[in-house]
Write a structure and sequence with these properties.
The protein is mainly α. The chain has a domain of 66 residues. It has five helices and no strands. It is globular, with a radius of gyration of 21 Å.
């Protein structure tokens, strides 16, 4: 994001990186979650049992109750694949930059290594304990990461205050 938004103000960065994606996610969950709740509330949903049995199929189960089911299921699958591929690629890119000493254009071979390593780690967790193992590792790794991000936010606010005082802005 920092490379894409180079030269933008902090306000623009916050808008493009925090507000717009959060709003889109809110709308996604409101529409699809609201639709699922409506279907269940009206009594003809039948969504709970299949989703409890296999939560990974929740979107497909919901789309079975809406028009253009097969088309929308394919669109959902394509969107999920694009999401996972782009997330994996950008994660591998960041890992590659960090391990290359901050090089903004790290070698592609290293990124391939990181992509394969991350994919292998996820595959091992899936084989060892399914989605529950992957979920447990994600949550336990996320807690320390969250604390580090909170510290980074405090540092960012302090540096922005120093910057605004030195430049004369209030």
């Amino acid at each position: 994001m920092a490379r894409i938004l180079r030269g933008r103000t902090v306000r623009e960065f916050v808008c493009y990186v925090l507000l717009i994606p959060t709003t889109i996610n809110f709308l996604w969950f409101a529409v699809f979650g609201g639709t699922a709740l409506y279907l269940e509330d009206q009594g003809g949903g039948g969504l709970v049992e299949p989703v409890v049995e296999n939560v990974a199929m929740s979107l497909h189960v919901l789309l079975e109750h809406l028009p253009w089911t097969s088309l929308m299921q394919w669109v959902g699958l394509v969107l999920a694949v694009i999401f996972f591929i782009s997330s994996s690629d950008s994660g591998s890119f960041v890992d590659d930059m960090v391990t290359s000493g901050g090089n903004p254009n790290p070698p592609v071979a290293n990124r391939i290594f990181w992509g394969i390593s991350e994919g292998a780690g996820a595959a091992v967790l899936l084989l060892a304990g399914g989605l529950q193992a992957l979920h447990a590792v994600s949550i336990s790794a996320g807690l320390p990461q969250s604390l580090l991000l909170l510290l980074a936010c405090v540092g960012l606010v302090k540096m922005l205050r120093v910057e605004s005082l030195s430049s004369g802005y209030k």
